[in-house]
Each structure stands twice: as structure tokens, then as C-alpha cells.
Amino acid sequence: MASASPLRHPYRILMVAPTSFFSDYGCHVRILEEARILRKLGHAVTIVTYYKGRNLPDLEIVRTRPVPWREEYDVGSSRHKIGFDVLLSWTSLQLTLRRRFDLIHAHLHEGALIGWVLATLRRVPLVFDFQGSLSAEMVDHKFLDPGGRWYTSVRRLETGINRMPRAILTSSQHAKGFLREEFQIDPKRVHAVPDAVDLDFFRPDCLTPDQSLELKASLGIPPHRPVVAYLGLLTDYQGTDKLLQAAAELRRRQVAAHFLIMGYPSVGYYQHMADELGLSGWVTFTGKIPYERAPAFLALGDVAAAPKISDSEGSGKILNYMAMELPTVAFDMPVSREFLGDLGVLVEPGDPRALAEGIESLLSTPDKSSDLGRQSRQRATRFYSWDQAGRQIVSIYDKLITTNPASGVADPAALTAVSTRDEGQESRHP
Q1: What is the side-by-side strand order in the sheet with 126-130?
Q2: To bridge 188 with a disulfide, which of 162, 237, 398, 419 should be the other Cys (CB 3.0-4.6 Å)?
Q3: Per-residue pLDDT tens over the stretch 396-430
């Protein structure tokens, strides 16, 4: 995909990330890979984020001070997040007053709200990286009751934030449609930049056979038992409980399989659940896996599972599975269909028995499964590489910066051109 002719290079981009970046999962991976591909394309990226998180040697990361009353607090869906966001706002403001940026690229809704203030002050475009509904995510995390008195207020706040940016990037075509249908956002301002995968990093040949056997032994995995791999957060809305119930169903059917469940938090909770289901010796919990080691651990899998039951967020783990040539079983959700096309085994959402049957169908046909895996990597290569995504993002930047920064009004012809290109890209997806 060719980029539009740039006006200024390199762009100086401030990414606002209201999270403890970098933490090896979910939205953190998208932030990381976007920053890396933008740097690779010659642009300067500064990430401003919370005080906790893992520094990475190739990125400029500016952190807030810790909240004075909870210096060791791991932020989550909590009232303490307000304190973190106040500090993030202050740090971001100081940064933009000291340095000149061409564009604010904000992640998550809090980041978009902070970014709008900064972009308005400095008269530069604001891009909002939309990775899911704020209200739906708070419901998923059981922090908000959809029937409670605060839900309507949060929904109104979310609607207002969604209308602030000059451009919105979504992690899937489904999310683009969601913004149009649920929030009546002008589709000309919304651009689907699907989650992508680093195909040089996630490679199926990253381990030798001897290395694979050694790693299996260190994890207590029987050397010749097929492995069902999962990598992601361990939560009910990610379907971790359904995956364990599917494992128990396969054990009852005497289907040989070992479940390698990689991620956090609540490892003890799900380990106890596995024991209660009679899965001792059938499941290995690794806890948190550093992103740098994810390909090696995924390489142990014969089949991958994506049991996420929330449809308000993306599912980037599926692309990692595809790049690793892992045939994948997923609940039949819009994003799963979008990423896998007809190359995945999609089953009834929320049904552990259907999930077990899907896994069994792949384990029982290894030749067909291997072919699905190879085709999945080909699909990821064609549609979901970060090189393609990076050029698309820069093209959107180019169009936004054709606007006179002092006017604060986007050039309709420029934005229409980007939107038209996005629609053309959508039509090329099978």
C-alpha cells in the first residue's frame, strides 16, 4: 500500500497510553508494534504512560510519578485510576509545553480525552486508537452494572469522547461498524487499521526439535501428547473457564491432549478450578509470559484456542496463532470471523462442549490441521502485517496534516480520500 506524499518527515508523534506500558498483553502489544513500525518508517515516537510497566530499549517512554498514596498499586478498573490519569494529564501537558509534536496519537478513551486537551492547546490533529467500548469493557470487568445508575453517565461520556478526535483508528472492521451503529460516528472519520502481527518475530520454526522437547520437559508436558495452546489474559470474559470446561470434556472422552495455558492474572483461581474439574496432569499454567518469549511457547502448540466471549474488543492473539501456523478453534464472534475467514473452526459462543468438539476435530485430523495452519500464516502475511498497517497509519497522518493546524477543521476531500482507500481495503478481504 503506497503512502500519500508526506508533507513533513519525520513526524513527531506523542502517544498517550493510559496504562502501565509495557505489560506483555492486549492493548500493550498494539501500542508497542505501532510505535515500532512508525519508528521503522522514520518517524519519532514518544510514549507517555503510567509510572509502572516495563521499559523497552528501542522506545522513548516518559512516565508519570507514582500516586503518593499507592506507590506499588497495579492499576486496573478502580477509582484509583482517576489519580493515575490526573498524573498522566499533568505529565503529558508538561511534555507538550516543552516540546513540539506534529500529532497526538491517543490510546483508550482516557487517552483520547487527555489527548483532546493537548491537541486543542497545541492546535495539532488528534488520532484516537479505539480498542473497544469503554462502557462494555467496564461491564466485562464487573466494574459497571449495565442496569445501574452510573451506566448512562459513562455511556454519555464515551459518546462525547468518541466525537472529539479528527480520526479514529479501529482494530477491526467490526469495530468500525460498531462506532457507526452504536455511536453514530461519521464513517469518514473512522479508519479500520486491524490488529497485525510481526511475521519475522512470530515464526513456526523458532524452536529446533531438541529445544521444543527441552521446553516441554521444563513445563511438565508429556513429550508426545498433542498440545492445545492459549496465550492471553486469564479472565471469565476471555473464556478461561470455558476452556477448562472444554478440557474436562475432552478428558471424559479420553481424547489425548495437554492444555498449555499461558497468561495472568488469577492463575491460582483457575488452577483450583482445573483441579476441581479433574484436570491434574492435563493442564500447565505458566503465568505471565514475556512478549519476547511468546513465539517459543506458542511453538509448542499443535492447536490453539481463542475462547473469548466479549465482542467489545479485538483479539490480537488470533493473529499470533495464525503467524505460528497454529490451526485455531474460536467462539464464533465477529472479530474471529474477520481474522480467520474460513480457515478457523468457529463454534457456538460460550459453549464449552462445542469448544471441545472443535478442538477434537483438529486433533483427530493432523494433516488437515497442518494445512489449515499453513494457510493461516499465508492469510496473516497477506492481510495483517505491521508493514502494511504502518503505511496505512502514516497515510492517515499525512491527510490530517494537510489541514491548516490553526483552523482545527479537517480537509473533507483529504479525509474522504483516506476513507475511500479504507473501504477499498475492506473489499479486498475475503
Answers
A1: 60-63, 44-49, 12-17, 103-107, 126-130, 167-170, 190-192
A2: 419
A3: 999 999 864 543 444 444 444 444 444 444 434 45
> Could you give the angle at the alpha carbon of 13 between the alpha carbons of 77 and 28, nearest 5°?
35
**Percent of the chain whose predicted confidence (pLDDT) is above 70:** 87
* Pair type for strands 103-107 and 126-130: parallel
Residue 163 has phi, psi (to 5 degrees) of -95, 0
Nearest residue to 386 via CA among 45, 35, 146, 2: 35
| Exposure string for 274-299, b = 16+ CB within 10 A, e = fewer | beebebeebbbbeeebebeebbebbb
Give the Cα separation of 190 and 168 in Å (integer).
Answer: 5
Contact 301, 318 (CB under 8 A): no
Give dist(CA 1, CA 389) in Å, integer.
9
317, 231 in Cβ contact below 8 A? Answer: yes
Exposed, middle or buried by CB within 10 Å (0-12, 13-18, 19+), for 351? middle
pLDDT in tens, 226-280: 999 999 999 998 999 999 999 999 999 999 999 999 999 999 999 999 999 999 9
pLDDT digits (tens, 9 = 90+) for 278-312: 999 999 999 999 999 999 999 999 999 999 987 76
Q: Cell 505491521 belongs to which residue?
A: 386
- ∠ CA(181), CA(399), CA(132), 5° rounding? 35
Residues recorded for the chain = 430
pLDDT digits (tens, 9 = 90+) for 158-208: 999 999 999 999 999 999 999 999 999 999 999 999 999 999 999 999 999
> Among all chains, which residue has been given the C-alpha cell 492499576?
75
pLDDT of residue 59: 97
- Residue spans of beta strands (DSSP E) within 57-204: 60-63, 103-107, 126-130, 167-170, 190-192
**Residue 122 CA: distances (Å) to CA of 9, 156, 225, 275, 335:** 19, 26, 59, 56, 36
Q: If phi over 0 gives left and psi between -120 and 50 gives alpha, with beta otherwise, what is residue 239?
A: left
Burial of 199 (0-12, 13-18, 19+ CB in 10 A): middle
DSSP sequence for 38-81: HHHTT-EEEEEE-S-S---TTSEEEEPPPPTT-TT----SSTHH
One-letter amino acid at 390 equals G
Cα(226)–Cα(215) distance, integer angstroms: 14
Query: How far is it, in rounded angstroms, from Cα 166 to Cα 179?
Result: 14
Whether residue 10 is preceded by a cis peptide bond, meaning omega within 30 degrees of 0, is yes
* 111: amino acid identity, one letter: G
